Amino acid sequence: MLAKLLIANRGEVAVRIAQAAAELGIATVAVHADDDAHALHVRRADRAVALGGAGPAAYLDAARLVAIARDTGCDAVHPGYGFLAESAGFARACLAAGLRFVGPRPGVLARFGDKAAARGFAAGCDAPILPGTERATSLAEAHDVLRALGPGGAIMVKAIAGGGGRGVRAVTSPAALDEAYARCRSEAQTAFGSPEVYVERLLPRARHVEIQIVGDGRRSVALGDRECTLQRRHQKLIEIAPSPSLTPELRGAITAAARRLAEAAAYDGLGTFEFLVELDAAGAPAGWFFLEANPRLQVEHTVTEEVLGLDLVHLQLAVAGGRSLADLGLADGAAAPSGIALQARINLETMDARGAAVPAAGILTAFEPPSGAGIRVDTFGYPGYHTTTAFDSLIAKLIVHLPGHLAGHASGAARGDLADVARKATHALSRFRIEGVATNLPFLRAVLEHADVVANRITTRFVEDHAAELARRAAELAPPAPPPSAAPAPAAPRVAPQAPPGTIAIVAPMQSKVVSISAADGDPVRPGQPVAIVEAMKMEVVVTADDGGIVRGVAARPGDIVMPGDPILFLEPAELTADEARAQTAADLDAIRADLAEVQARHAVGLDAARAAAVARRHATGRRTARENIAALVDPGSFTEYGALALAAQRRRRGLDDLIANTPADGLITGLASINSALFGPAGARCMVAAYDYTVLAGTQGYMNHKKLDRMLALAHERRLPVVLFAEGGGGRPGDTDTFGNGLDVPTFVEFARLSGLVPVIGVVAGRCFAGNAALLGCCDVIIATADSSIGMGGPAMIEGGGLGSCAPDDVGPARVQAPNGVIDVLVAGEREAAHVARQYLGYFQGPIAAWDCADQRLLRRAIPENRLRAYDIRTVLRDLADTGSVLELRAAFGAGILTALIRVEGRPLGVIANNPHHLGGAIDAPAADKAARF
Question: Considering the entire predicted model, what is its pTM?
């Protein structure tokens, strides 16, 4: 069992963990930022240590947290939720320091903490997912996804790390995507320490349900379900357990999917697997999709505790201490839920008529939670507490529970359960007294008493769709202002900067911290132009100018705390002249921002021009670089590279600068391009190209380049794109270190093989091609190889290791052997000819051509002798029959009794099978039959 626990969090969850640990006899150490020194969690732990620094950044300092844990003699760290709770890096740092991490193993965190990668894992476990991306996504890729959804399509941009609705935006038009993408990245960086985002299709009508899982690393069980459909701006507001919306069949299917995911990951600890249930026009379920997994304690764990009679934090600490599910009496899962429970999140905020939260802060002059049977309050509030907008606005969670014998009293049905528990929650909220700072208590009451909520006619957009109505009702329910005797002593008046004569102020919309100001004194400003960004509750808000004019004063600086109505800029109203408007919209269009310059510089490092020594060594062998081969194959300027900044997964044994310099693109250059567009047009010429780079770790297959190729193969399958593979390389790479578990159990090979018969798949090899590279080459429809190639499923090291003696690489499977035995379809002199033949081969499958020429067709009158017993040259017949230069013979050195070729006749592509009178009198032997059958 654990002895001493560092609580690496704040607020109500830190209080909750401290309480659970105390009940188990575990000593606790709290940590706090400078602006959290008087927070309740500091007093509830046995000891408290200052982190140094202010705001969320203090709680994201993993090294400082680990150091405090070691210095204070802790043997475990509990991350809570948010901040570093889903950070695999933090978990690894804890384990490296000899500390137990109260949560899943780092490998499990990496799998599920990366929300995009978790989608791919879910799909592999037969859980349906929404169309979108499965990795960190660029702005251009996000535009591609939105465009692919067609007119009316919409996407969600979401932070890869963390949750809680931060770093999340809905985008319904391409024009709104750039700004939403930037805001999501910035919010994600602030809240979770990582700016990466992904995208998925937005479901306009859906319910949000989730399954609670606990595992011990050997098996996992489900602890019921919850419904979280009532949300505001993608942040949960009210949660219910069990879900009143799921049919037994749907509940069973979703629970089974969650268990499959957990079992496949050998899940250890608490986790929540979230799903969206799509609704049809009548409100009935029309499908369900995996949304994300949260490998941590969930904010709404409370409702599960109430209906199951379990303490989930106790379970979490017990599993971290080494106890199994059997030890905990959960080998077969938990008992059936008793009754129904509802949690309402009480936030220091008000809701406007658009459904947007306006944060509030100040001193809690009164704080009196309700009490009674079936009422629970988890909070860190107390009278006199000075709140801040630097953190999440959650101050308390009200949980109400109706036991089984009372739930459904009104109607005896699930809908009756919901109505009864909503009524109980509404009454409890009305008795929750908080004064000094505005809260959403009236808004929660307005939601819970709404007829559609009571009748369970809701979707995740309920709050947005009814925002104005709910705001009006909340205003009616708001308590009267406290009497003067209860009011706090007045604070010293704040002196706001005075507006210069003739100017108007652009003001802060809420109490917040100024992140940036994008206009300077004297700048012209257009109506609607963004002039500043402020942050409240870890969410960023863009401040725009309502009117046009000239900036005549800047009243705030980045880092300043501003109150609602405080001036940020002063603007002298003015109509911009045409020149000023043009200057404002066209200024510095050619300027390169620092972040873009950094990206360009990183891309440049991987290009041939920056790798002179490697290129020189390659040229000294008489061969071209991978990039030169791609350039010779594709139409000029058409190649769009994917994953150019990937590096070998060897950070545990090599420095980052070394990897950047020596493992560009992780040894695989891949992307989309066009081939023969001058003949077939842009649409008909699109293709996918991949080239292993022999100058990078001998063209071997590494962890990251497998991921790249997997993504491109999926794209080729989805878009029906031809594939050209330059396969030179040594197969699987043994030196990668940044993997976990079955990290190289990859879908690459099966997905590559699935393209057979779907699209043309062309393999090109020059030099050595062994093992995994050769496996992919063998799946190609056609193999074009140079005379100096050597192809084999095992390279020299494998051959020698198998006790078969030593051999030179060029003797494993040389072209002089592989061409006569039928492995090579087209044998060419060198790489230049190989690229030409690949273009020619692909052209046959791209369509007919308008311009063509041919031999004098009268030659065909004498091509076949009148005497049927006289042999003739079938290749001459074919040359005269086909358009000039259009004959491409396949496997010419194998199966001499049959000739197989692709040709054009009057521009139209055709396949030809012809027996050879000069071999066995035209009889078909076994090699010839093999050749014809494959063709």
Answer: 0.57
